[in-house]
Amino acid sequence: MLSIEDRKERWREFYSGSRRIIIHMDIDYDEAETVFPSPDTMDKFFTQTVNRYHKLIDCIEWLDDDRVPYISALMGCDNFAHAFGASVVYPGNSNPFCVPMVFSATELVKVKKPKLENSSLMDVIEYGYRLQKEAPGALMQLPDIQSPLDIAALIWDKTDFFMAFYEEPNAVKDLIGMTSSLLTEFLELWFKTFGKEFIAHYPDYYMPFGITVSEDEIGSISTEHFEEFSMPELCKLSGHFGGRIGIHCCANIKHQWGLLKTIPGLVMLNLVQPDDVLSEASSFFRDGPCQMFISDKVYDPKAKVVLYGRNSSKAEALSVLAELREKANNY
């Protein structure tokens, strides 16, 4: 079976273009109860995370796909908004989320960029240390990394935030600038502490270096506003972290495809959309980034794609893997 280093090398070949297919298998964990993170459940959540890591390690002994095992620091999308002072809600049956703390541009004066070393983000770093101690040498999955725009949209109530794009554009830029700066500082510390190679927060693909973000709010804004408010920060982040970026989006952003394609260093794109949209996107981006659309389909034969299989048992995983290998061989 492929070693972890062999699997990493396949991904590097994939990004370089010398390999056009990666096969990524996902096995259901068959847990009696899923534990979600909260101040009262962190020990149980940590145990669940460690158990999942060991299951991924076990899989490489019998499942010859290209997935790279990792231990996950993923908890929820609230981390960065919370660092600015937004309150967090812990539903218990799903991941935590933040409540907006700003409802108008005039209230933005109460938002200050926190010092990283004094912020709640240091709890995330400490959690990373705990994971590293439990699984020495394990590759780490990043915490949930929202884009500067998306973090701002968690801090500022969206019904007013999007109106401010027209009425208070400088206030919007000020907040996005603060979120981008804090995100940069956090990731600098993270990579310095845990290494530059990582697994993206979603989907869980390997990156030898760079940055990955969720950029969902561009589905709610115009192309002009994407270019003005978000593109500069995405380009800056990509350049700052070695000229490589992966982007996830689960919104309808067909009107933004042209701009996305121009982001320097865009090496991976994940869109969550119906099949007909993914097929069109695959052709549109065929000469651009690698594509991981959480699908077992090759939408465009000239694209670089990740074939994805989700399985509930070892027997099913081996059967699906054989099918995907045959599909890859005919690609």
Taken in chain order, the helices and strands follow as HEHEHEEHEHHHEEEHEHEHEEH
Radius of gyration: 20 Å
User: Class by helix and strand content?
Assistant: alpha/beta
Terminal Cα span: 22 Å
| Percent strand | 5-15%
Estimate the global geometry from the Cα principal axes. Answer: globular
The beta-strand count equals 12
The structural domain count equals: 1
- For the biggest β-sheet, the strand order reads 1-12-11-10-9-8
The residue ranges in which pLDDT falls below 50 over 5 or more consecutive positions are: none
Residue-averaged pLDDT: 96
Structure commentary:
- It contains eleven helices and twelve strands.
- The protein is an alpha/beta fold and 331 residues long.
- It has one domain (4-329): TIM Barrel.
- The strands form four sheets. Strands 1-12-11-10-9-8 form a six-stranded parallel sheet.
- Strand 8 (211-214), helix 8 (223-240) and strand 9 (245-249) form a beta-alpha-beta unit.
- Helix 4 (121-134) runs parallel beside helix 7 and helix 5 (148-155) crosses helix 7 (169-194).
- It is globular, with a radius of gyration of 20 Å.
